[in-house]
Every structure is written in C-alpha cells, then in structure tokens.
C-alpha cells in the first residue's frame, strides 16, 4: 500500500484544496482530476510495459517504454467520475467500466447494493478500481470481488482518502490488491463518513445532491 501524501508535498496540497469546505464544485472537480492523474502516474510501475525502439530527430535510435496492455479502469459512480477522468487522461487507450453502488446503513453497519454494472464479460489483465472515498470499505469489497470475477490477474485500487478501518477491512478481504491513496484518516463518524475527510465526494464533485 502507498500513501502518496507521505511521499509528496504535491499530494498534500491537493488534499488541502479537496478538504477545504470553501472549495466550490468546479474547483473540487478540477483537483479530483489532478488526484486521478497523480494516482495514474504513481501506480505506473504496477502496469505491464514493453521496451520500444524510437528514432529521435537526430536520427539516433534509443529504447523507451510503451504500455504492453492498457488496464481496465473501473469507476464507482458517481464520486469517482472526475477521478476516473484524470486517470484516463494519462492512459487514454484504457477501456472504462462503470459500476454504481448504494450504501444502506442500518444498526449493524453498512450493506452495499450494486445496482448498475457496465463491465466487459472477461478481463484477464490488470484492472484499476477508482473510488475517492474508502470509508467502511464495503463498497470497494463488492466492486473488487466483481472485478476479480471477470478474471483480472491483478487489481489496483486508486483512492483519495481511506479510513484506517476501511483499509484494514479491504486488506483482510483482499490481501492481493495494491492500494494507492493520498491520505489515511483516523476514523468514521456515526454516519460512516470519514473524519476529518472531505465531506460527500459525490455531491461536491458533481455539484448536485441526490434526493
Ligand atoms: O467504504 P464505504 O463505506 O462503502 O463508502 C464508500 C462509498 O461512499 C461513496 O459513495 P456514496 O455512497 O457517497 O455515493 P455517491 O458517489 O453517489 O455520492 C464513495 O464514493 C464510495 O463509493
Ligand atoms: O466520507 C465519506 C464517506 C462516504 N462517502 C463520501 O462521499 N464521503
């Protein structure tokens, strides 16, 4: 697991903007896209690359790297949309899958209902699941299982803020996934929101609250 805020001041600056209650929706969306780009770049060593020969304007050949196979990007609607957009700007050739999940809160905690799924029938390569908030981890657990059922050989998770307890839950259920996040926050409140967190990532990123 990598916590990019522990490695890069730039990640902490993105978090400053995203956490700030005064950040308006278009600005929030912009910084979420930037977080997506950062996650794409920082997780690039997890992807498969091949050496490719290139001739420079000096007529000299050298070798660089090209993606061997683009990963399948899976966004969890709706908060992940700007994050997915930023990630896919870095790998425009990557196919995009979408799922939507609803958190149902009750006295025992959070249950998750997957109510929309637009994924390929089979995907055996690398898959990247993108969701900015990893709170209880119940949503991500469902989505990772769904992606694994496609045949994915390797699953990477790109998140912006993960709670300590959500991370432990995911790592206990899926010890094989690689998790990239900008921050790990200490707790959840009684509505299972991350504290200090950044509020409702879907409402803030999309500019509307569902009824
Ligand atoms: O770790 P969990 O406890 O499962 O919570 C995380 C989920 O909550 C958020 O979505 P939300 O339910 O707010 O939906 P939205 O994106 O449509 O606003 C977030 O984008 C995750 O999908
Ligand atoms: O803190 C949280 C938890 C779930 N969903 C959000 O948007 N924020």
From TrEMBL:
Superkingdom assignment: Archaea
UniProt keyword annotations, A-Z: Glycosyltransferase, Transferase
Protein's UniProt keywords contain Transmembrane: no
GO molecular function: uracil phosphoribosyltransferase activity
EC main group: transferase
EC numbers on record: 2.4.2.9
InterPro entries: PRTase-like, PRTase_dom
Signal sequence interval, chain numbering: none
Gene3D superfamilies attached to this UniProt entry: 3.40.50.2020
Tagged with keyword Transferase: yes
Residue stretches making up the Phosphoribosyltransferase domain: 10-204
UniProt name for this protein: Probable uracil phosphoribosyltransferase
Provenance organism: Acidilobus saccharovorans (strain DSM 16705 / JCM 18335 / VKM B-2471 / 345-15)
């Amino acid at each position: 697991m990598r916590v990019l805020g522990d490695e890069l001041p730039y990640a902490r600056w993105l978090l400053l903007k995203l956490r700030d209650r005064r950040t308006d929706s278009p600005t929030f969306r912009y910084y979420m896209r930037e977080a997506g780009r950062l996650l794409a770049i920082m997780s690039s060593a997890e992807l498969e690359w091949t050496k490719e020969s290139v001739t420079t304007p000096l007529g000299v050949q050298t070798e660089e790297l090209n993606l061997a196979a683009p990963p399948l990007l899976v966004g969890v609607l709706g908060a992940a949309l700007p994050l997915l957009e930023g990630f896919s700007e870095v790998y425009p050739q990557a196919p995009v899958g979408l799922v939507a999940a609803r958190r149902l809160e009750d006295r025992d905690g959070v249950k998750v209902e997957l109510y929309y799924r637009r994924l390929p029938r089979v995907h055996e390569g690398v898959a990247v699941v993108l969701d900015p908030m990893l709170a209880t981890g119940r949503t991500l657990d469902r989505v990772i299982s769904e992606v694994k059922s496609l045949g994915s050989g390797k699953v990477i998770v790109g998140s912006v803020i993960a709670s300590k307890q959500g991370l432990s839950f995911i790592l206990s259920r899926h010890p094989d996934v690689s998790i990239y996040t900008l921050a790990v926050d200490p707790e959840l409140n009684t509505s299972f929101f991350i504290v200090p967190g950044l509020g409702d990532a879907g409402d803030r990123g999309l500019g509307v609250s569902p009824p």
